[in-house]
Design a protein that fits this description.
By secondary structure, this protein is of the alpha/beta class. It has two domains: 38 residues; 125 residues, Glutaredoxin (3-Layer(aba) Sandwich). Helix 2 packs parallel to helix 5. This is Alkyl hydroperoxide reductase.
């Protein structure tokens, strides 16, 4: 009778250990799924400045504290792609490499506008290998453009006029905004 009791206790302890391991595995999978979940479909940005309107001249700050002017004239024919991101945004982390790719392929100047604490933004830049990309901070531009969801992309022409604006979640969304801007530059 005693051996039956000892065996049942060993089996019970083993079942509890297995159950704990299963709970940890499920918790990890939930975290992975949370990172991968993104809003489905194109989302519209709130109002604010619309395509065709020029942004005001605002001096933003780089992560190093250097001044970075926005709304200033660029080289003729240049297009600046602003991407509003945050370090705790899983969709932003997925869209960033896509935006880098599209900007490089189309000859656009990519500027990342960070929302969050500067140390977290610096860690994000370093972790994602964004050393060659302009990364600015400041809430002024987000307020002027009424950026309420991330990641939001805004394309500006050489004069600081908004060519296209929208929330981007996938490559298709990013690439849909770029031809709209190209048509306005040619016009």
């Amino acid at each position: 009778m005693m051996s039956f009791l000892v065996a049942s206790q060993i089996l019970l302890f083993g079942a509890v250990v297995v159950l704990v391991m299963v709970v940890f595995a499920l918790a990890r999978q939930i975290g992975v799924l949370h990172e991968r979940i993104a809003p489905i479909g194109m989302q519209t940005a709130q109002t604010g400045l619309e395509p065709g309107q020029a942004i005001p001249r605002i001096t933003m700050r780089t992560l190093e504290g250097e001044p970075f002017p926005m709304g200033e004239p660029l080289a003729p024919g240049a297009v600046r792609m602003l991407l509003f991101v945050a370090p705790d945004c899983p969709v932003c982390k997925r869209v960033l490499p896509i935006a880098l790719d599209v900007a490089r392929d189309r000859g656009l100047e990519l500027v990342l506008v960070g929302d969050g604490a500067q140390p977290e933004l610096v860690m994000m830049r370093d972790r994602m290998g964004l050393a060659g990309v302009a990364f600015v901070t400041g809430v002024e531009l987000g307020l002027v453009l009424q950026v309420s969801r991330l990641p939001t992309m805004v394309l500006l022409d050489a004069n600081g006029t908004i060519l296209a604006k929208g929330v981007v979640n996938t490559r298709r969304h990013v690439e849909a905004l770029v031809p709209a801007a190209a048509g306005r530059v040619a016009a």
